[in-house]
Amino acid sequence: MRLLSTRRRHPATKTIVLAMALFLMGALYAALAPTPRSSADGGMSTQVEEGKALFAVGCSSCHGLNGEGTSQGPTLMGVGSASVDFQMETGRMPAKAPGQQLPRKENQYTDAEIAAIAAYVDTLGPGVQIPEPEQYQSSELEAANGEERARLIARGGELFRTNCSACHNFQGGGGALPEGRYAPSLMGVEDKHIWEAMRTGPQQMPVFSEETLTDEDTKAIIAYLENLHGQPDSGGLSLGGFGPVGEGLWVWVLGIGGLAAVAVWITKKGVRAK
Ligand code: HEC
Ligand code: HEC
Fold first, then answer.
1. Which of 33, 55, 127, 260 is deepest in the core (most CB within 10 A)?
2. Cα 248 from chain centroid (whole Å)
3. Is 72 touching ligand 1 by the criterion CB < 6 Å?
4. Which residues touch 189 (CB under 8 Å, ≥6 apart)?
5. CATH homologous superfamily of domain 45-122?
6. Which residue, 128, 124, 127, is CA-closest to 68?
7. 74 in ligand 1 pocket by Cβ < 6 Å?
8. Residue 203 near ligand 1, beta carbon < 6 Å
């Protein structure tokens, strides 16, 4: 105490005393507060408790302390662990601020932390669960001979063009949506995340439930995308991967443009020749 009183004038003293007082209060609270009793049904697992604590720190400001939602973010009751897994592993969540579109970014959490938060969100209400590899990886594909493999990929391509290309473009290259939003490129997206995106429908994307696309369908689509993006570019200009529309457009612009240029050149020459 002598030390403190002789240095009372020192600007740091106040801060140190305050920190000591806070520490003391914290220690007292920890010693005296009743240990939280676990709920009647035998208590939450440690993983869920861990998830709840992480959620309180990183997510509750927008999603509410119990995932009930706030003006800054929707309720997470019943979204399920698959949605949390997708949103966190692709770095979309935690969002920095609610914006036009919350893009992919570097994920700052460990796998164990994400699993804990996902397990906690699962306790809020029944939702889509994180898939097992059998649900999205077609083991038949590796085993299949060339012909079967080609058939699965072709089916996936058909399903993709029917259900996805309106937003993600024919080759999954992504595209613009109204109101400044966009569907991202699907190049290099992990198989599990493709499955989770289909089943949970992030942001503007519709949910494709099992009634719309069975797990077999999702496997075909994933196989199609894998095959498409595993392929080296076949050379030449990719023209944005818009398929026949893009190529037709370029032929139109260059072809007609070229003809017009030639026509102008000829008339000029003709005028000069006079
Ligand atoms: C700055 C606010 C903010 C923070 C912090 C935040 N979120 Fe979100 N979250 C949002 C908003 C806004 C949406 C809705 C995005 C949309 O659909 O346009 C959302 C959507 C989600 C969804 C998708 C819900 C669905 O319907 O499928 C999940 C899951 C989610 N957040 C989990 C989390 C988790 C887990 C954390 C903490 C690690 C977190 N969020 C932190 C704002 C936030
Ligand atoms: C109505 C437009 C729309 C349709 C149809 C649609 N999506 Fe999406 N998709 C989006 C949007 C918008 C996002 C971005 C969501 C976000 O940022 O949270 C997205 C995101 C994704 C992602 C995440 C990519 C990433 O960068 O992490 C995948 C994977 C995906 N979609 C696959 C599909 C598949 C497969 C289909 C068809 C079965 C499909 N989408 C149909 C609009 C659509």
1. 55
2. 33
3. yes
4. 197, 225
5. Cytochrome c-like domain (1.10.760.10)
6. 124
7. yes
8. yes
Per DSSP, what are the bridge partners of residue 182?
A: 176
Q: Which residue has the higher pLDDT, 49 or 142?
A: 49
- Give span(s): CATH 1.10.760.10, the chain: 45-122, 133-230
Encode pLDDT of 103-136 as tens digits. Answer: 899 999 999 999 999 999 999 999 999 999 999 9
Query: Could you tell me if 202 and 141 are in contact, meaning their C-beta atoms sit under 8 angstroms apart?
Result: no
Q: Give the C-alpha distances (Å, rounded to integers) separating 133 from 137, 184, 246, 258.
A: 6, 24, 37, 53
Which of 164, 165, 225, when mutated, tests ligand 2's pocket best, judged by the most ligand atoms within 8 Å of its CB? 164
Q: What is the pTM of this model?
A: 0.76
Architecture field, domain 133-230? Orthogonal Bundle (1.10)
Q: Is residue 248 pLDDT above 70, yes or no? A: no
